[in-house]
Amino acid sequence: MNAPDWWIIAAIVLGLVLVGLYLSMTAGRLDRLHRRIEMAYGTLDVLLARRCALTLELAGSGLMDPAAAVVLVDSAHGVLAAIDHDSDSSRRWLAESDLTRTLGGVFDDVQEVDEIREEPDAAQVLDALAATCQRVSLSRRFLNDGVRACRQVRGQRLVRWLRLAGRTPWPQTVEMDDTPPDGLSAITT
């Protein structure tokens, strides 16, 4: 073989190695992003369940006025009913948003929250609920950031053409109202 033939073959082999390395790294990145999304979704799910449980605990404690307790219980049961019908996730996010708005309506006044906190057992539950509401907001943002990053990588031509994502479903963002109530936000700051 001539010297120019060697260089051509070496350049082709080097190019194939570099393309293979790039594809391997991209597939690994996609795998890590999908795992990150699954973990973030699991974390969000746990935090939302904790928020619902704390809401029911607070509503059933007798520390609140009966009308607010009934509204909280009704909204929390709406979330539980939506979880039971897991096939439609949009229904769940609407129920979670409704619970967020209900919490915001019940705990919108810092002075009222401070009055409830004066009860012996209320401070611990309110602190836990306030912290959980903050964590829900952060967890949803973290999940949606992972979904956006994954969609960006999966949108690349080479990734689509070579099907580097395999049969993994297209990741979906979680769109819900997760604004912590004003009265509870004062606790965590």
SSE topology:
Elements: H1 3-60, H2 66-84, H3 89-106, H4 110-117, H5 122-154, H6 157-161, H7 182-188
Which regions are unreliable across 5 or more consecutive residues at pLDDT < 50? none
Number of helices: 7
Q: Helicity range of the residues?
A: over 70%
Secondary structure: number of strands: 0
- Which word captures the global form? elongated
Q: If you average the pLDDT, what whole number results?
A: 88
The largest pleated sheet is described as: none
SSE topology string: HHHHHHH
The separation of the N and C termini measures: 75 Å
The secondary structure category is mainly alpha
Strand content: under 5%
Keywords:
189 residues, mainly alpha
Report on this structure.
By secondary structure, the chain is an all-alpha fold. The protein has one domain. The protein is 78% helix and 0% strand. It contains seven helices and no strands. Helix 2 runs antiparallel to helix 3 and helix 5 packs across helix 7.
